[in-house]
Amino acid sequence: MSYLGENIRKLGFGLMRLPQTDGVIDVEQTKEMVDLFMDAGFTYFDTAWAYAGSEDAIRQALVERYPRESYQLATKNAAWINCKTKEEAYAQFDTSLKQTGAGYFDFYLLHNLGEARTEYFDKFDMWNWVAEKKAAGLIKHVGFSFHSTPEELEAILKEHPEMEFVQLQINYADWENPAIQSRGCYEVARKYGKPVIIMEPVKGGMLATPPESVVKVLKDAEPESSVASWAVRFAANLEGVITVLSGMSNIEQMKDNLSYMKDFNELNDAQLQTLKQAQEELNKIPLIPCTTCNYCAKVCPMQIGISGSFTAMNYLTLYGDKDMAVHQENWLVGGHGLKRVNECVKCGKCEEACPQHIQIRAELERVSENLLK
Ligand code: SF4
Ligand code: SF4
Asked: Cα–chain-centroid distance for residue 82?
């Protein structure tokens, strides 16, 4: 059966983690990455109003340099970020149009539905609003990204059959993870006939540098393949997938992704077995499942360096090197002008925004115990 986007190639360029120099997106390097991607025949780009500087960068690197019909551009509306009125939420669309200069969006997503965040889209009647934009030709396809339970996904799809696709977090680490339920959500989307766009296939980069025991499993099976390639291939192997978004941050990552996605073949039984072993090894290590999406940072009133603290804490868990972990925390938090975890006022706003359902306040206490004392 044919489905929306089946002709789009299975690697999409996620624009959430573009290369930076001194904290500013490196547009020249982004241009080179866009050129490599387009030259290899890939065409799908995924940005969002909420990704600071990303829409502006892709205007310069892509929109102003390539014919509009030669690529698909997706962006997203995050009505739950600091919007008090529907006008404020709707205004994100105009900002996105202006920042990208794209004229229209091939794919437009209601961003990060699930839990309390869904209420904003209901309250502001974003469902009808987005249908009007589509009717006006400003959006070609409407869908939503989602981070919550399969039950909640099913409820939304029942109520909104007009949604054309769903964007889900799927990777081999989260496939059976009870906090993410990748498999359950994927199966609900397929049950409702919705094609899926996959995000976080490399889990915010975590599966590019997994623990040594996982690297060993993957390298023993295919010494020549990069560790990250397993994560992207796992996602691309699923049926009904429009594309797999990889949030590439440099030219090297782009080249690596292109090398194995250019001629992607289905995974065979031995490869699937290898991934199963990797999953088992990963499950043995209690890492904080933070993907550094920084949605929490957008709502934290104290500007606590949450994701940087978690990166440092994971470093400690993985390598047991406290000096290095403290050094990392210093740089990722203090070095970036953010506040230390001991200034957290425990308001819980971050936990409402976190797509990974991390008990942030409790984990921050652990950071404080282990790295600040
Ligand atoms: S609980 Fe702490 S870290 Fe979370 S939003 Fe509130 S102040 Fe920020
Ligand atoms: S704690 Fe949650 S919201 Fe914050 S960066 Fe990590 S995954 Fe994203």
From this structure: 20
